[in-house]
Structures are given as C-alpha cells and as structure tokens.
Write a structure and sequence with these properties.
Strand 3 and strand 4 form a beta hairpin. Helix 1 packs across helix 2 (33-41). It is elongated, with a radius of gyration of 24 Å. The termini are far apart. It has 294 residues and is an alpha+beta fold. The protein has 6 helices and 16 strands.
Length: 294
C-alpha cells in the first residue's frame, strides 16, 4: 500500500461551513461532497490532529489533513495505441477482447497503470481511470482521466450527453439511408441514430450494410441490441445472434470510431477519430465479389 498525504490550512472564511462542504474544493483528489463523506467514514480526514466527523464546522486557522492509502497496481503489459494524452486525460484505442476496467488483471486501466507516476497536477490519480466503457468485444476510443477534477468533469459531460460518440459497424441486411432506433432497453428510454454508408449484396447473407451509429443515450449494449431488434444484427455478434447465421471467429464488427467533447480542464473542443479498420472493407468487397460470381 502506498501512503499519500495532503495538508491544508483554512484561511479567512466569511460564513459558517461544514467540513463536508469545504473539502471537496480544497482537495482536488476528493472533488465532491460524497467523496469527502467517504473519506470521513474511512477515517482519512483529520481536523487539528483529530479524526474528522460530518458534524465538524471549520474556522479560520484550522489544520486539515487528508491521508490516503492507495493500492499498488500491477501493470498489464499490452501495446495499446494512445490517440491523445496530456496531464489530465488519456484517450486510448482499445483492441477487442479486453475489458476497459473491472475486477480483473487484463484491463485497459492496468495497461496504463504507470502513466500518472510523475504527474504534478492537483488531484493526480494513482492511475488513469476510465470515465466510460465500451464492451469487451468492441474496439475503439476510450477516455481515461488522470486527475480527479478531469474525472469529475468528464463524468458530468457523459451524464449530460455532452460527449458525441460515433461508431462504425457492419450489419446484416439492407438498411435505410438513415433513421433512428427508439426502442427502450431494460425498461429505460434508448435512442440511436444511424446513417448507411454502403450496402453490398451477399451470397450468404443477402445483404450487408456499413453503418455510422450515434448513441444518444448510453444503455448497456445499446447499439448491439438496437441493431438486432431492427433485424440488422451486427456482424460477428454471437451473443445476440440466437439462431441467426453470422461470421464467427473474426470478432465483432463494431468500432467506437470518433469522440467529440470539451477538454475537462481547458474547455478546448477535442475531435478524435480512428480509421475504419481495413477488415471492414475487405469483408464487404469479398461478399460483393462472391455474389457477382454466383
């Protein structure tokens, strides 16, 4: 376990304020009232040398100390491309077959476990933490925060639908030029817009279509479920194929291709994109040739 410690002296304050309402602003590693309450519950917050309680009010001259014991994270060695990085965040191009995070060793978070080692920014995290997820079989862009303020601001941006996400997928069937899927998922509203980029005839599957998908909401497996519900299973999606024939052994043909969002600290607009995988065009070209030669 690694011990971290922060100290703060209360300067002149104009009005009476509880410690739970004060510390989120002065300790960036906390960043919120709920995180401050958790630190108090875990006896990590001290006022004038005494363990703090939620009933404590602060006054000018008080000495506040925050202590953290953070676990040493074992790095998982895997070559993952970094699309963007600064002291506050990191955007990685996740390969298929690896989880973003969770109670396991082989995760994107553990690949970058050492990326905050020398970070001197206020509220620097022990390691970069993902602020959203994409499915294990899905490839594409994932954002990880390197500081607590960035983590809080990015999480809020996702909650408020201020991060524009674009996916690319190959699906079964001939899809309309554009449209919207609005069917609920697990009883909750869910909305996805789509645009057809290319459709080819296929000897084995009648048609295959290349789609650009934009999830307006963020339900679990939303794109995969919406496409399957519409009769356009994503190619290679064995989890939702049921008895439908699809291409297996080549992974899921779904990529989180583009992210547009405001930088959580500078507010600069970031537009990040990865290319459409070559295998997408190869599959479409192959199926088209097979159909024409039929």
């Amino acid at each position: 376990m690694k011990q971290q410690e922060w100290n703060h002296t209360v300067k002149r304050i104009k009005s009476k304020i509880r410690i739970v309402d004060y510390c989120g602003d002065v300790f960036p590693i906390l960043g919120s009232k709920s995180a401050t309450k958790k630190a108090i519950y875990n006896q990590q917050l001290f006022i004038n040398g005494t363990v703090a309680t939620t009933a404590n009010f602060i006054k000018s001259g008080d000495q506040i100390k925050l202590k953290f014991k953070s676990k040493t994270i074992k790095k998982f060695n895997l070559d993952i491309k970094i699309v963007y990085e600064d002291d506050h965040l990191l955007v990685a191009h996740k390969p298929g077959g690896i989880a973003v995070n969770g109670n396991r060793y082989k995760t994107v978070e553990n690949v970058f476990a050492d990326r905050t080692r020398n970070n001197q920014q206020p509220g620097a995290l022990n390691r970069p933490l993902a602020v959203h997820r994409i499915d294990v079989p899905t490839k594409g862009l994932v954002i990880l925060a390197k500081t607590k303020p960035a983590q809080i601001n990015l999480s809020k941006a996702f909650q408020n639908n201020q991060v524009k996400k674009t996916y690319i997928a190959i699906v079964h069937g001939k899809t309309p030029p554009r449209g919207t899927y609005n069917r609920p998922i697990d009883g909750k509203g869910a909305r996805t817009t789509f645009k057809t980029l290319r459709t080819v005839s296929s000897k084995n599957f009648s048609h295959l279509s290349l789609l650009e998908l934009q999830p307006v909401t963020g339900r679990t497996h939303q794109l995969r479920i919406h496409c399957q519900q519409a009769g356009h299973l994503i190619l290679g999606d064995k989890e939702y194929a049921n008895d439908q024939k699809t291409i297996l052994g080549k992974g899921l043909f779904l990529v989180a291709q583009k992210l547009v969002f405001a930088h959580p600290i500078t507010a600069e607009m970031l537009i990040l994109k990865v290319p459409t995988p070559n295998r997408f065009e190869r599959i479409l070209d192959r199926e088209s040739r097979r159909f024409e030669g039929h």
